[in-house]
Design a protein that fits this description.
Elements (H helix, E strand, L loop, with lengths): L3 H28 L4 H30 L7 H9 L2 H7 L3 E7 L5 H9 L16 E5 L4 E6 L2 H18 L14 H22 L6 H11 L8 E4 L17 E8 L8 E5 L8 H13 L3 E6 L7 H13 L7 E5 L7 H17 L9 E3 L2 H11 L15 H5 L10 H8 L2 H18 L2 H33 L3 H33 L9 H27 L4 H15 L2 H31 L6 H10 L3 H14 L3 H10 L9 H52 L1 H11 L2 H28 L1
Parallel strand pairs: 1-6, 1-7, 2-5, 7-8, 8-9
Antiparallel strand pairs: 2-6, 3-4, 3-5
Helix pairs in contact: 1-2, 2-4, 2-16, 2-26, 5-12, 6-8, 7-8, 12-14, 16-26, 17-20, 17-24, 17-25, 17-26, 18-19, 18-24, 19-23, 20-22, 21-24, 22-24, 23-24
């Protein structure tokens, strides 16, 4: 976290940058009298610099306040994503990206713009690669090959495709193929898996992914150099089936004599529905972070469908200003009859409306680029120099003339170029380059400033509560200390309350736990047997000493009750059974409450917590439960005594022994009958006691708040708090003022 001095130093650095701005303005004035083009260049540079400076000021303010305010992850991500505008504004070139699905004719459109066969016009979607065209000092093409990381990525994509087809688990981690041996083992494993799967289903699966993987492995070490230079004319060979196609990352083309502004770059991007995930990623990143204008290319009968519409919708959702800098074209328009043209026109506008794309009619064109390309080359007398174009025989063009296309005069060619559907392409080119040469940069800057303003307002809204609060404070130091103590108290009590509430939830969700187990019942039965045995010995001794037989027999029930204190015995066992689980939980809760912050816990509160979380209250509750459950114990003893006359024996001593055995057996049955519902009642008691403890503790925190306040006020270092809050106040205020100034500028 920056301190005030660090922030002041950075602000001084910003002032130095402001000084550089003045130098740019001075340079602009120097050129204004002598060189209009340079003035325009400096105007653009100055405008760019100002907006870049505004973005940097915004992000400086954002990073300053970020440690002091609460920003949710969604908002944080949204703000930080706008940082990409800085690099796009710093970029001197003006990239125009051509987007569209495979076979929409992007390459043909670009070739027609240059009136030259530069790009191959039938690239398969699985081997397509981005091609970047700019003006250069000489005609040349640089081929850039994929690096090791890209090869590994492509391998993982192909393996994923294969494993999906044979119902195998997808790799959780990316494979890194560091040697030919590893690649061979992987290939053999996949071939074995495929063979086993095909034998299982009795059919062959699609072989293309495995064949592509084999090509990738075969050529893995062939293309180690980063680039290769080729002649422009050789570009047309780089189509599906070319041995290098799989390993090409992108192609950058420089052309000397082309009719585009120096700073404009045309980019033929991979189709929107290509199978190669690496190319989809390239397209998305280029659109979102580099391109400054766009041409969306479509073909009839499949306008804005599938992945194409999903991609455009995503762009519009993430950054709606992007599509505002777009041109929309439907290529191959000649393939439709008049009725189909009306349908496609209506279909296009319906989809634009459905997806809330913001476009204007003056940026929507319908044409067949190949027809214009063909006629323009005829007009320039360069058709014979082309390789593929001269072989094109358009039925549409033939329908426009009674003579053969080969016998057209210059005047006839000129007339054909003025047909609406052919001239529409020229209108598109004129409109595009007029846009690029005039309003494109202004529109791009306008979009940048619009998005920056949104983030300025968003961040300023987050700062308003603190900014307003600091503005209202008169005795700042005292109020800071009071606020800090209150904040610490609330946090401390909140932590205590949270632990108590979590304890309550855990205890209520223990399920049908059996506190009283079979082993407890057996122990009670064993204790009954032991006491009855001891009582039998005592009776025998009394008989031998001449004790009155009738008196002894009448006192037998009371003797059993006196010797066999079953209620106390069960109660003690019940407490022990519950103690293992519940009392241990109470002990853990007490320990957790102590550990929240020992310095903040008043001694008086600690003693109250120890009292509330001790065993006394739960023991009393359980003893009461035992008493309630055994209230029939006396009645059971009496019931047994009424049936003692049924006891048989040759001697009186045997009759007494039989009576005691009856007591033992009947009392064991009595215990068993109670145990059936015992756990249900114990669980209910534990639940009730949990609720009682939770309520008592939460009430205790409220009652003891004043003592907690005193304890915390004596423990925290308020001088450090004051310094921190003063720093926070300064940063919040400065940042808020910067945002206010930016809002005014934007």
């Amino acid at each position: 976290m920056e301190n005030l001095n660090e922030i002041k130093n950075r602000m001084m650095s910003q002032q130095s940058v402001d000084s550089e701005k003045n130098k740019v303005e001075s340079a602009k004035r120097e050129y204004s009298d002598s060189n209009t083009l340079n003035v325009e260049y400096i105007d653009n540079q100055t405008t760019n610099w100002i907006v870049i400076s505004q973005f940097k000021k915004f992000f400086n303010a954002y990073h300053d306040v970020e440690p002091y305010i609460k920003i949710d992850e969604t908002t944080k991500s949204h703000i930080e994503n706008k940082n990409g505008w800085i690099s796009r504004l710093e970029q001197e070139e003006f990239p125009v990206a051509f987007l569209g699905s495979f076979s929409a004719g992007k390459s043909t459109i670009i070739n027609a713009i240059f009136k030259r066969e530069i790009l191959p016009e039938a690239v398969n979607s699985t081997t397509a690669f981005p091609t970047i065209i700019r003006k250069g000092e000489k005609d040349i093409a640089n081929i850039y090959y994929i690096d090791e990381d890209a090869k590994n990525q492509l391998c993982n994509e192909l393996c994923t495709q294969i494993r999906k087809k044979i119902d195998k688990d997808i790799f959780n981690e990316n494979i890194v193929l560091t040697s030919q041996e590893i690649r061979n083992k992987l290939l053999e494993k996949l071939k074995k898996d495929i063979s086993e799967y095909e034998n299982k289903i009795g059919n062959k699966i699609e072989s293309k992914p495995l064949e592509t993987l084999q090509k990738l492995f075969d050529g893995w070490g062939k293309y180690q150099s980063a680039t290769k230079i080729i002649a422009i004319d050789a570009l047309t060979h780089y189509v599906e089936g070319h041995e290098e196609a799989l390993f090409i990352d992108r192609i950058e083309v420089a052309i000397k004599n082309i009719n585009i502004p120096d700073h404009v770059v045309l980019v033929d991007l991979p189709g929107l529905a290509v199978a190669n995930e690496r190319h989809i990623k390239f397209t998305k990143e280029y659109v979102q972070h580099k391109a400054k204008a766009f041409v969306v290319c479509m073909k009839p009968k499949s306008l804005l469908e599938g992945e194409e519409i999903k991609f455009l919708e995503e762009i519009n959702r993430v950054n709606p200003t992007i599509l505002q800098r777009s041109f929309w074209v439907i290529n191959q328009w000649e393939t439709l009859n008049d009725h189909q043209k009306k349908e496609e026109d209506a279909n296009f506008y319906k989809k634009i409306k459905d997806y809330s794309f913001n476009i204007t009619d003056n940026r929507f064109f319908k044409f067949t680029a190949l027809n214009y390309f063909y006629l323009s080359c005829m007009a320039d007398e360069t058709l014979s120099e082309t390789k593929k174009l001269k072989e094109q025989k358009s039925s549409y063009l033939r329908s426009l003339t009674s003579n053969g296309l080969d016998d057209l005069s210059k005047e006839e060619i000129k007339n054909l170029l003025n047909y609406d559907e052919i001239k529409s392409f020229l209108n598109f080119v004129d409109s595009l380059f007029n846009y690029l040469g005039t309003v494109a940069q202004d529109e791009f800057i306008k979009n940048a400033k619009s998005e920056l303003l949104q983030e300025v307002l968003r961040l300023q809204k987050l700062l308003i509560p603190d900014y307003t609060m600091y503005g209202k404070k008169d005795n700042f130091e005292i109020e800071i200390q009071s606020v800090e103590v209150d904040k610490q108290v609330n946090a401390f009590i909140g932590n205590l309350e949270g632990k108590v509430e979590r304890f309550g939830i855990q205890m209520r969700n223990v399920g049908k736990i059996d506190f009283w187990k079979e082993s407890n019942t057996i122990q009670i039965e064993q204790e009954i047997s032991r006491i009855i045995l001891q009582l039998s010995r005592d009776v025998t001794n009394k008989l031998r000493s001449g004790y009155d037989n009738d008196g002894l027999l009448s006192r037998l029930p009371s003797e059993v009750i006196d010797k066999l204190e079953l209620t106390f015995l069960m109660r003690d066992k019940l407490v022990v059974a519950v103690e293992e689980f519940f009392l241990n939980s109470l002990g853990r809760l007490l320990l957790e409450l102590k550990e929240v912050n020992k310095d903040y816990l008043p001694e008086s509160l600690l003693k109250l917590l120890e009292d509330k979380l001790g065993k006394r209250d739960i023991e009393m509750r359980l003893k009461g439960l035992a008493d309630a459950l055994f209230f029939q114990y006396g009645d059971e003893i009496e019931r047994i005594s009424f049936s003692l006359n049924e006891c048989q024996g040759a001697t009186f001593e045997e009759r007494v022994g039989s009576a005691l055995e009856k007591y033992k057996n009947e009392l064991k049955k009595f215990i068993r009958s109670l145990v059936d519902d015992l756990n249900k009642y114990v669980r209910r008691s534990v639940k009730n006691h949990t609720q009682y403890v939770e309520q008592e503790l939460l009430k205790l925190f409220v009652d003891e708040r004043e003592r907690i306040v005193i304890q915390i006020a004596n423990k925290i270092n308020l001088s450090e708090v004051t310094v921190f809050e003063q720093q926070k106040k300064s940063i919040i205020s400065n940042s808020y003022n910067i945002l206010t100034d930016l809002k005014r500028q934007l």
